[in-house]
Amino acid sequence: MSPNGLPEQWNWRKCPFRVIRTVSGEDHSACGGEWVVCEAGGGIVLGESDADSTDAVCRSCDIPPSLKKRQSCLFVVPFRVFRQNGIQSYYSCRWHLNIPSRNVPKNNDWCRGCLHWFPRPDEALVPNTFDFSRRALELFLSGLSAGPPLDKKKFLSKNQRMQSNDN
Predict the structure, then answer these.
(1) CA distance 158 to 156
(2) What's the mean pLDDT when you consider all of the chain?
(3) Exposed (0-12), middle (13-18) or buried (19+): which is 115, by Cβ within 10 Å?
């Protein structure tokens, strides 16, 4: 075990959303009661702390490198959606948690031009990270938004608007 409680093979990348939880009970005695939990996935249990399958899920995650990007913002809220056909990371914003699910970006490159952008400090200094990720995930999965769906006409060029009006 490494000093941070993770198996030695996991020192390749630190993730603020990967947490080791101790689980008590006879059912969990085989792994010593230690499970890896993904807080970006809403607290989903990935598996035993020493399992190769758990390591594979974490290796496929793009959240740690995204948070290290220069344009990564204090207000970005990463979360992961675990489905039977795969896992996808999304990047919401503390200012705009209620945007429609279909508009939530799959990377944090959109932070570049944001009016609310503020440099992201060390992860330990970002308050309520897990709470915001869970809330963003819940809103995403429910498909709810506080506002109406986006009006496509606002995002079309003048020519495209004129062509859609002719039809």
Answers:
(1) 7
(2) 77
(3) exposed
